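User: I'm putting together notes for a lab meeting next week and I want to include a structural view of one of the chains we've been expressing. I don't have a solved structure, so I'd like a prediction I can at least talk through. The sequence is below, exactly as it appears in our construct file.
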Amino acid sequence: MITTSNEFENFIDTEDEWFSDIELKVLDLEQELTEWRESRTREFTEVSGPPPRRDRDMLRARGNAGRSRPSRPSPAGKPRKPSDRAQVLIEQGRRPAGRGRRPARRARPGRGLKIGIGTAAGLVVLIAGAMIVFRNGPSWPPSVATVTSQITTACRNPNVVSEPGQVNFACDTDTSQILWVFALLTSNNDPGYADARTGRKGLEPITPAQGGQIAWSLNLHHPYNPLNPVDSLAVAARAINNIIGGATLTGANGKPTVQPGLEGKPENCARYTGSPAIVSRAGFPGRCASPVVTQEGRGALVADVYRQWMPGASPVAAQNASVLFQNSGNPGDPQVQAILKTLPDHGG
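Assistant: Thanks for the context. Below is the predicted structure for the 348-residue chain, given as structure tokens.
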């Protein structure tokens, strides 16, 4: 049996209590800091088990760094007998340093995890948006884009407007689709189109003689060619504007002859604008007093123009032109799709 002196026993007891008190204070501070963080974030995950021994050692080292251990008086009261202290050490061992320790702290998710989750969510949203924007859907035949580009060139000719009324429905930004709609329905957007029965040729089929007469008023800087898509579109634009706004021509006797257009009739203006009122002046064809601005009014006007542009056209064909015109920005419309399926090669 090993005998331990009172001084040695008191030293062991003092050291034990010192370390235990320091560890308890550190753990209390940790717990308070953790609770404050949890109250701020409210996001945490359960982590079981006490803090790793390495963390406890680091906390203990930080608490002791730069601090001299104060001398502590021996505990008051009657000193223990060496034999009793030794017996306790042998039977029970040293008291655990973590007595009275609170439950293990809870760790919140790391910032890196949050950033990763946010990035993944952002990518999902971007991919979904791209699928919606770039998904394949109903569209106009590819030839429409080609003809649209050619319309831009043809409409640069300032003489496509009607004379003297200056109507320019065929080349106006909001209504120029009438040109590619007519080309799609009459020639299937084929600049080399030729109808042996009627003699009509070109992207906007017309007889060469009629095309030549209209081309004369366009002041072209080259001989008119009905198979040139730009020439064909320019002639069609001038013809359509004349059909709508009328024209004033010089007769064989040298006197002006006024040819009224579709807007020269009150009943037409009532359908196009909602008002039968007409504005007229000497030497000019009559015009609707109100502009044609509604989709329904423009659709009715386009149907009437088509019947005059294509003599003998059926009411169904004229209505098809009106439907395509009004839905130029909506190729997925069921009526549009039904019309396109009736065209050769589905409209090219």
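A couple of points you could mention at the meeting. Strands lie at 247-250, 256-259, 278-281, 284-288. The longest strand covers residues 284-288.

User: Perfect, that's what I needed.
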